[in-house]
Design goal:
By secondary structure, the chain is mostly beta strands. The chain is built from no helices and nine strands. The protein is 0% helix and 50% strand. A five-stranded mixed beta sheet has the order 2-9-8-5-6, with no helix packed on it. The termini are far apart. The relative contact order is 0.31. InterPro entries: Ig-like_fold, Invasin/intimin_cell_adhesion.
């Protein structure tokens, strides 16, 4: 089984931020799987953290999508810099073991309350 995520970059804080994860098993899409999206960030003191931003279900092509209206919607505080995201298979009706993707780059001009100036 594989979970693939793609690098994301936006120019403006108002640009929609779309996170995607594609789940394949033996080269075939895995539809109807519950996927958790994790947003990774670093704080001013360099600590790396992350947490679940949302869950989505894969479609017939094995793709789960999470859309944020803009980077202000991303879960981060004013002292954090968003660095990337990953996805994890949470549930597939018992057909596949839980697994997680590598971390993809998430390059946005600001995130969370940092977009409002703190």
């Amino acid at each position: 089984m594989s979970i693939a995520v793609a690098d994301v970059a936006t120019v403006s804080p108002e640009d929609p931020v779309e996170l995607t994860a594609t789940i394949l098993a033996d080269g075939a899409p895995v539809p109807g799987a519950d996927v958790a999206f994790f947003v990774h960030h670093t704080s001013e003191d360099g600590d790396e953290e992350g947490g679940v931003a949302a869950n989505a279900e894969t479609d017939a092509e094995g793709v789960a999508t999470m859309l944020f209206a803009g980077s202000a919607d991303l879960p981060a505080f004013s002292d954090q810099t968003v660095t990337g995201y990953s996805a994890a298979l949470v549930s597939s009706d018992g057909r596949y073991c839980r697994s997680r993707s590598e971390v993809a780059s998430l390059d946005v001009p600001c995130a969370g309350s940092a977009c409002d100036g703190g």
